[in-house]
Amino acid sequence: MLRTLYYLCKLFGLASYSYTADRRNKRVTADYGYLNYMFTVIWLIVYTVGFPVQILTLRDDDYDSQILFIAFILCIILSYISSIVVVVWVSIIKRKIFLKIIEDISQVDNKLRYTLQEETYMNRNVLFNIILEIILLTVFQCTVIIYNTYHLASEPYYVIILMLISVSATYICNTLFLFQYLNLVYTMKQRYSHLNKRLTDWISGTVSRPLCLNKENKRCSPSDMAVDHGIITRLFVSRVGNIEGTLKQADIRLLRQTYSELYVITCLINDTYGIPILACLCWILMIVLCCLYEVLSEFNVWVITDIAYTITCTALMFKVTLFCHKATNEAKSSRVLVQKLLLLGNCRKECVKELKMFSLQLQEMTIEYTACGFFSLNLSLFTGVVSVTASYIIVMVQIS
């Protein structure tokens, strides 16, 4: 699953990393890094050259109002700036941090000890999400490119190229970056969900601690188990002393360590993707405002394109806020589950002490996804943006 996420991120130079470690494949890793830098430089040249050229080719007599002309200039500026920030920040400045995030998630997975069914279910969900995103992006962009090229057929070739670069290339680059961010957040949400499932099992009276018996009837570690012939045992919470099946202090400590590592990964994601996320959200907001104002002010052949971009950008922002909102709530629900486990009163003294420390840890380590610390990414942000956009559009229409 992490490998699939990585290959998605390699598109448009958003990552450069190989999972191989031997000498022969280290050369392949270096080649990938070189190609990644070359690909990044090409995109930067395209953006930096296309940006001033397109600004200079804009003419105010092509628009019915001065407000619409200024809005399109601001829209183009934000489109190019957000794309340049995404490419430079993720592919050059923070390129190695993505590698660390993937490695940290893999280390957490080694501690969580998934069963075969759980791992298969999680991988299928992430893979389905990635495939669906790529299909929707491809179908939408191909349709918009064909439609725009058809209506620009009478224009010079450089106008068509500039149009495709300013609209399609920037949109694809920013969207791919948001997909990378969304899949990381979704991956983190799955890990929090697994921790909460384990706490729920403890509350219901069972401890899911996968054990394996080999041919000599000796226990082996989960990493060495053969899933096809492994024996999964159900362990029960009890007040009795050190017997097999009792909730142990080591189990709670392992959960505390895992949650701490997930908190560090979340902070790393916020630090890595904060500035690009802020730039992309500003780009989305400007795209929606500009397209809506053009649809309401003048009716022409570009109305269909404007409506399409308004719907897709709004859906993209909704998906970002929804995924971050769900991941945040999943992490916060651990506090309630720990308190429920404490209220049961059927744990040993050392386990109660560890649970109290776990509760304090959850209060201090608050999980939250932000845009460079300026605001939290949740559904409240989406509703606020929708209300502000509607109010602003009404004011702009009244003024015009």
Q: Could you characterize what this model shows?
A:
With 400 residues, this protein is mostly helical. Helices cover 75% and strands 2% of the residues. The protein has one domain (2-203, 248-399). The chain has 10 helices and 4 strands; from the N terminus they run H-H-H-H-H-H-E-E-E-E-H-H-H-H.
What secondary-structure arrangement, pairings included, does this model have?
Blueprint: H1 2-9, H2 23-57, H3 66-93, H4 95-112, H5 116-151, H6 157-204, E1 206-207, E2 212-213, E3 219-220, E4 235-236, H7 249-297, H8 303-344, H9 349-364, H10 379-399
Helix pairs in contact: 2-3, 2-6, 3-6, 3-7, 4-6, 4-7, 5-6, 6-7, 6-8, 7-8, 7-9, 7-10, 8-9, 8-10
Query: Share of helix among residues?
Result: over 70%
* Largest sheet geometry: 2 strands, antiparallel
Note the gap between the termini: 51 Å
Question: What is Rg?
Answer: 25 Å
Spans of 5+ residues with little confidence (pLDDT < 50)?
1-8, 10-32, 208-219, 221-245
Which H/E pattern describes the elements?
HHHHHHEEEEHHHH
Strand order of the largest sheet: 1-4
Which geometry do the CA atoms define?
A: elongated
Give the rounded overall mean pLDDT: 75
| Strand residues, percent | under 5%
Give the helix tally: 10
Q: How would you classify the helix and strand content by structural class? A: mainly alpha
Number of domain modules = 1
Number of strands: 4
Key terms:
400 residues, two-stranded antiparallel ribbon, 4 strands, elongated
